[in-house]
Amino acid sequence: MVKLNKIYTRTGDDGATGLVDGSRTAKHSARIEAIGAVDEANSAIGLVAAAVAAEDRGDLSRIQNDLFDLGADLATPGDDFTPSDMVLRIVPGQSEWLETRIDAATERLAPLTSFVLPGGSEAAARTHVARAAVRRAERAMTALADHEPVNPAALAYINRLSDYLFQLARLFNDDGRADITWIPGANR
């Protein structure tokens, strides 16, 4: 259990922040950029949750918790991606759960005949914003992976999450019936 007695520590006033292993890194490092992008995505998902009925928040709450796990994974440098009681790592089962939710949504949705524009209902629009934030987090994570080891299960999870959010946005648009679709060249 995490216990936070003091919100400010002053240890980051020099532009560095601590990682799980006790090392310190610049707040503008690729690792912190990835962690921050995951945090932004989590916040965007919180906005989705605020816009939907309580019975529609279960998956979102689970995902927000998983994104905290992902942040902890990214804050733990090294190439040993084995989870333990002391080291949080994203595991394949978390992506597999998303896949089951994507598959269930796909069964309800009509096949796409065009690209979907971000919008429709408020919940769908917020979900598209969250999806775009997740894609930004994925770009930050893959940029980090170009220079330092990143848990492959974490990369799979963030990629799958954007797919899930795309399908969720369609569900929020009356199971896709209220999707706004792209009409190529419509305004030429």
Structural topology:
Blueprint: E1 16-18, E2 24-26, H1 30-51, H2 58-74, H3 92-108, E3 116-117, H4 122-145, H5 152-172, E4 180-181
Antiparallel strand pairs: 1-2, 3-4
Sum up the structure in keywords.
two-stranded antiparallel sheet, single chain, Hypothetical Protein Ta1238, Chain: A, mainly alpha, elongated, 188 residues
Describe it:
The protein is mainly alpha-helical and 188 residues long. The protein has one domain: Up-down Bundle (Hypothetical Protein Ta1238, Chain: A), CATH 1.20.1200. It is 54% helix and 5% strand. The protein is built from 5 helices and 4 strands. The protein has a two-stranded antiparallel sheet. β1 and β2 form a beta hairpin. α1 runs antiparallel to α4 (122-145). It is elongated and about 50 Å long. The protein starts with 15 loop residues before the first strand and ends in a 7-residue tail after the last strand.
Please state the overall shape, judged from the principal axes of the Cα atoms: elongated
Q: Helical segment tally?
A: 5
| Poorly predicted runs of 5 or more residues | none
Helical coverage, percent range:
40-55%
Give the C-level CATH assignment.
Mainly Alpha
Radius of gyration: 18 Å
CATH topology: Hypothetical Protein Ta1238, Chain: A
Termini Cα gap: 58 Å
Which structural class should the secondary elements be placed in? Answer: mainly alpha
Number of strands: 4
Global mean pLDDT = 93
The CATH superfamily label reads: Cobalamin adenosyltransferase-like
Count of distinct structural domains: 1
Q: Give, in order, the helices and strands.
A: EEHHHEHHE
